[in-house]
Amino acid sequence: MNLRTRLSDLPHHFQLIVIGGGITGAGIVAEAARRGLRALLVERNDFASGTSSWSSKLVHGGLRYLAGGHWRLTLESVRERNRLLRERAGLVELQPFLMPVYRDSRPGLRTLRTGLAVYDLMGGQWRSRALSARRALALEPGLRRDGLIGAVAYDDARTDDARLTLQLIFEAAAAGAQCLNYVAALALLRQGERVVGVRLRDAEDGSECELGADVVINAVGATRDAFEGAAVGAPLLRPLRGSHLIFPLNKLPVRRAVSWLHPRDRRPVFVYPWLGVALCGTTDVDQAADLEPHISEAEADYLIEALAHQFPLAGLQLADAQASYAGVRPIVAGGGGDPSAESRESALWQAPGYVGITGGKLTTFRLTAQHVLRAAVAQSPALAEAERTAQPTHPEMPSPATQCAAWIAAQPADERVSLGGTPYSCAALRWSARHEQVRHLDDLLMRRSRLSLLLPQGGAELLDDLASICQEELGWDAARWQQECAHYRQLWQRLHAIGE
User: Fold this and answer.
1) Residue 453 lies in a domain
2) For helices 478-495 and 463-474, what crossing angle results, to 10°?
3) CATH code of the domain containing 355
4) 347 and 467 housed in the same domain
5) What is the SS3 string spanning the chain?
6) Domain check: are 367 and 479 in the same one?
7) How far apart are CA 385 and CA 206, in angstroms?
8) What would the mean pLDDT of 66-74 be, rounded to a whole number?
9) How confident is the model at residue 1 (pLDDT cuts 50, 70, 90)?
């Protein structure tokens, strides 16, 4: 059974306590554990349940940032993309892109080729090339043909953002860190002006405790007031919502990523094949801090308008989409009117014993983690000494991902059959339920797997087949199972249904 660490079983003091279980917090705790530091990560909901499961799933340098003159951000992103392709092969995969060029396109073909040449130079590999109109249509027959004069092709990368976050967290746990979901930070503890720990509450049993730390790190993202004292010294944020539509590939049969400028406002939009569906995004609108993110009618119409412009033969309507999702970007407010013009740079702030971090990109989580840990070590001589004398981790040990793959391969054939044509099987879900801190059904179907996006109605027709897994591995009785199913269906309707 998936046993849970109780707050009362934790040590009374850690070298680092990280608050927030998204990609930023995951990167920090993974880097801290790699350095041999005693670290605790807590997340008030499930790991990756915020922005880090609802991004565009792209690991990229950001051509739009290059066009905006953000050279350093683009250079860092391209290099980190290449690193992730090497070190996270299979989870981070190469994604070919195609950008069609039309007779009256701005920027034109020559400008795009120049920009992509700089992009390639930053990455140290020649990945882009110009294509004729005929070649572009051979690669993507559904493209708008009127006025097409050619295209540029280049490579970026894609991932499962939630799984990347989870993998970092589970690797940190395997290296000695404590990582707990559904544990909320209530308040910072202080001695005079210095932060010396946190007060925590376990959402499952309601228990509370106070734990000490050399340094507390706030990585909660878009929520300024997540706990008492969280916002002290923090920069002003401008939460921006990015919404997406999911289509079956038979409705939108794209073979690679296609990127183009929206005919209304010339913002970049894209569609690409992801885990057996077509993923289209994204918008960039202000998000009210007190509302749950969900695609609006205006955003849905915006994306359908973009698709109708670029793929007229598909005849797509909103009813063809099987799901939607929206995530909130924790953008540091720059005072500009245009949301798309706001910087994607991270912002760090400090107080004695306390480091806060927000903003940043999925691609550059490792650099953000290193930046935060440098600030933490500079704050605490004890932490600096602990880092200097810590015993290294043991990279020769199999990673959690390797152990998972080997375990699944050893299961009976009927447990390894694909669920609804997706990359997931009953064996994979059983492993997650047993080993990956699943507390609720939505943890399993929205983040440990992505069945909530890949199947109609979030895989509701498969729920009966999953009952035995959850009851056996999580110890749920029939009443708890029915409660979890009802909650999952309601949550799916709120977050992912079209037109809700």
Assistant:
1) yes
2) 120
3) 3.50.50.60
4) no
5) CCCCCCHHHCCCEEEEEEECCCHHHHHHHHHHHHCCCCEEEEECCCCCCCHHHCCCCEECCCHHHHHCCCHHHHHHHHHHHHHHHHHCECCEEEEEEEEEEECCCCCCHHHHHHHHHHHHHHHCCCCCEEEEHHHHHHHCCCCCCCCEEEEEEEEEEEECHHHHHHHHHHHHHHCCCEEEECEEEEEEEEECCEEEEEEEEECCCCCEEEEEEEEEEECCCCCCCCCECCCCCCCCEEEEEEEEEEEECCCCCCCCEEEEECCCCCCEEEEEEECCEEEEECCCEECCCCCCCCCCHHHHHHHHHHHHHHCHHHCCCHHHCCEEEEEEEEEECCCCCCHHHCCCCEEEEEECCEEEEEECCCCCHHHHHHHHHHHHHHHCHHHHHHHHHCCCCCCCCCCHHHHHHHHHHCCCHHHHCECCCCCCEHHHHHHHHHHCCCCCHHHHHHHHCCHHHHCHHHHHHHHHHHHHHHHHHHCCCHHHHHHHHHHHHHHHHHHCCCCC
6) no
7) 36
8) 76
9) low
- Asked if residue 246 and residue 135 are part of one domain, the reply reads yes
Q: Considering the domain boundaries, does residue 414 fall inside one?
A: yes
Domain containing 259 — which CATH number?
3.30.9.10
For residue 353, the enclosing domain spans 7-52+162-236+342-389
Note whether 48 and 107 are same-domain residues. no
Contacts of 33 (CB under 8 A, 6+ apart): 39, 171, 172, 173, 175, 176, 177, 393
Claim to verify: residue 203 and residue 271 sit in the same structural domain: no
Domain boundary among 320, 337, 354: 337
Q: Is there a single domain that holds both residue 190 and residue 300?
A: no
Between 64 and 377, the more confident residue is 377
Instruction: Count how many domains the chain has.
Output: 3
In this structure, the answer to whether residues 361 and 490 fall within a common structural domain is: no
Q: Above 80 in pLDDT, residue 289?
A: no
Report if residue 258 sits inside a domain.
yes
Q: Report if residue 122 sits inside a domain.
A: yes
> What is the predicted pLDDT for the residue at 388?
77
- Average pLDDT of the segment spanning 127-143: 95
pLDDT tens digits, 292-341: 899 999 999 999 999 999 999 999 999 999 999 999 988 877 766 677 76
Domain check: are 232 and 251 in the same one?
no
